[in-house]
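[stage:ingest] chain + small molecule (pyridoxal-5'-phosphate)
[stage:ingest] validated
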Amino acid sequence: MIYLDNAATTRISYNAIQAMEPYLNEIYGNPSGVYKLSRQAKEAIEEAREIIAGILKTNPENIFFTSGGTESDNWVLDNVEVGGHVITSSIEHHAILNKCKQLEEKGIEVTYLPVDKWGRVDPKDVENSIKDNTSLISIMMANNEIGTIEPISEIGMIAKKKGIRFHTDAVQAFGHIFIDVNDINVDMLSASSHKFNGPKGIGFLYVRDVDNMGPLILGGGQEMGMRAGTENVANIVGMGAAAKEAYEEMRWRIKKEIYLRNYLISRVLREIPRVRLNGSPNSRLPGNVNFSFEGVDGTSLVVLMDNEGICISAGSACSADKEGVSHVIEAIDVPENFAFGTVRLTLSSENTLEEMNFTIHRLKENVRKLRSAR
Ligand code: PLP
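[stage:predict] done
[stage:export] tokens:
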């Protein structure tokens, strides 16, 4: 099998599994207890919190564990008060977009900013959309479909100058590119463990100004009273281990992914006719490749590739089962005859040049087959 769908999820790392194992077996104490078995579990949670805080260059008190990216994103938007105004982009993940729809039903105004042909939000558009009642700006750090990295620090500067809280959905970015929350002026940041070789069903939200944040779930006092419920100790520990590993290895992982990505992109653009690369040529996630093939059905291409053991996706995993063109591909104005032939290949540093060669070979053949069947 050749796995090229790392934006959908990643393989859990051996180190993460090893780190989790004791907390699934012998150290099963409830972290809220006072005896040693519980204290050990609690210590492990706090260690993971310190690892993540250290990576983001913040303090452990600013990190809250959640069930993943969707929950972190929803939590941020739940804190917007009726009468407020939210600025976001038209290419956010549905964890943001569908929650924004709900906010609109409650009487909260939402501005969905357009993007340019590379999928980039213009910071000037953000500035020009600010109103007296704007209470939140939420722009993703990197897009999950086309990999475009957004100008987050410029937007952060605008938000800071105007005194508006700024959230970024960094689910695709954390663990893949270097992030310092102070450099980029973000107030809140969402991340998800299964996107950086940790376990599924766990993530976190960074909150700079904890006093101005309402709780998500009320109950016991877990997560500093902000997100109650007995902690998923093993998952938290696994996420911490995966985050540590990702950051320790980040430089070479980025280098390898960019090398493989550029090799794949340049050969496909050269060797397959009527294809376009979606997303920014420069400001893009190291492992992201997104092509539109003219006159090809993207889903059929995914099926043919799967028959040969190659995992790729049409659109994003979350919308792959929906009819039609994804909102991201629509937002960057991909011509209709290309749009339906969109596929995403997201690499990891575990991929090899041989895998790229085989993938290119099969892409060529399958695109030709689908075109000639029309
Ligand atoms: N935000 C982005 C940009 C994503 O890519 C995803 C998942 O694909 C999510 C949020 C949702 O994260 P999770 O699967 O942890 O709920």
